[in-house]
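cron nightly-structures :: item 1 of 1
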Amino acid sequence: MSTTFAKEEMIQANQFRTLSQKALQQELQSHEKIGVLFPNTGLDAVMMSYERYAAMAERLTELEEMLENVQLNQEFGHRFTAPKEQWIEHPEGLSTLEIYQQRRKEQSST
């Protein structure tokens, strides 16, 4: 969907007083979006069907999650490629600090 609007996709805000609900619904069915023009600010609002809005919101959530995964992979990806032998067990009941202290003791005694 483009962010630009064709002339037939725009409506003046004051037209809502005379526009019937049926006509507005028909406009929304025939156009992906309708730009609402206000006298002082120009194009300041957009209307679309709820179905289209929900699809856009769902896709945005998917893209945000993908971006987060890419950022995490860039930041910590090298950790995921470590061989299993290098993985550190995290026994239940031990804090991460206790695990590091225990590893430090083991490494200093060798």
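cron nightly-structures :: done
The longest strand covers residues 42-47.
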